[in-house]
Amino acid sequence: MAGHSKWANIRFRKGVQDAKRGKVFTKLIREITIAARVGGGDVSHNPRLRLAIDRALGQNMPKDNIERAIKRGTGELEGAHYEEIQYEGYGPAGAAVLVACTTDNRNRTAGEVRHAFSKHGGNLGTEGSVAYLFEKRGVLMFPDGDEEALLEAALDAGADDIAAVPGEGIEVLTAPDKVMSVREGLVQRGLTPSSAETVIRPLTDVALAGEDAERVMKLLEALEDLDDVQTVYTNAAFMEESA
Predict the structure, then answer these.
(1) Whole-model pTM?
(2) Long-range contacts: 189-195, Cβ < 8 Å, 24+?
(3) Which portions of the chain are predicted below pLDDT 70?
């Protein structure tokens, strides 16, 4: 993986809506709670929890909020019992869409996700209908740096490769379960990434432009605006149209 073309938006990012801090905090708190419930409250033995806390701190979430979320996950505090659900479907023009949710009410979430697909010209599919078109990767981002030196350090730390992303920086790519160990290895070498996370990425892209791109974008926006939706992934690549 040498890099991305200028128009390949591999993962849809909402941007403006994500600036609404309250909604961002809600999503982060749910992720922390589930991570603590699944893997325990000790970050030294729970890489997923460590990543979730790092993202929360990156959004300036108060530490008290983080600690309460962890305690709800471990059962030390009462709270809603959230579970993870993934929905799959197709948007307009054949774009595949994965919707990762956390919910305390499966029926409510399924209804909202189905409505969003239907309203915006998509179709909610069955389990496995589009998941095979994606893969899970660990990604550590560096806004800038010496690619050759970073590649050498990353490989020494156990990473798979690096990729230059125009306008964003340099990604270090790893197996999903190696994100934290690679991060620690890079930090020991004086290289601290701006972010470290596990993501889902398409194996191939579907290039879209014009009305098709707008229709898919509206579907993605509608899905990400749902309270129970954590992340939306798509294989749609939105082309920059020349004037």
Answers:
(1) 0.78
(2) 189/153, 189/156, 189/157, 191/142, 191/145, 191/150, 191/153, 193/140, 193/141, 193/142, 194/141, 194/142, 194/143, 194/169, 195/54, 195/55, 195/58, 195/139, 195/140, 195/141
(3) 1-22, 240-243
User: CB under 8 Å to 237, separation ≥6 — which residues?
Assistant: 5, 7, 8, 9, 10, 205, 206, 207, 208
d(CA 159, CA 172): 7
For 100, other C-beta atoms within 10 Å of its C-beta total 16
Is 141 buried (19+), middle (13-18) or exposed (0-12) by CB count in 10 A? middle
pLDDT of 90: 96
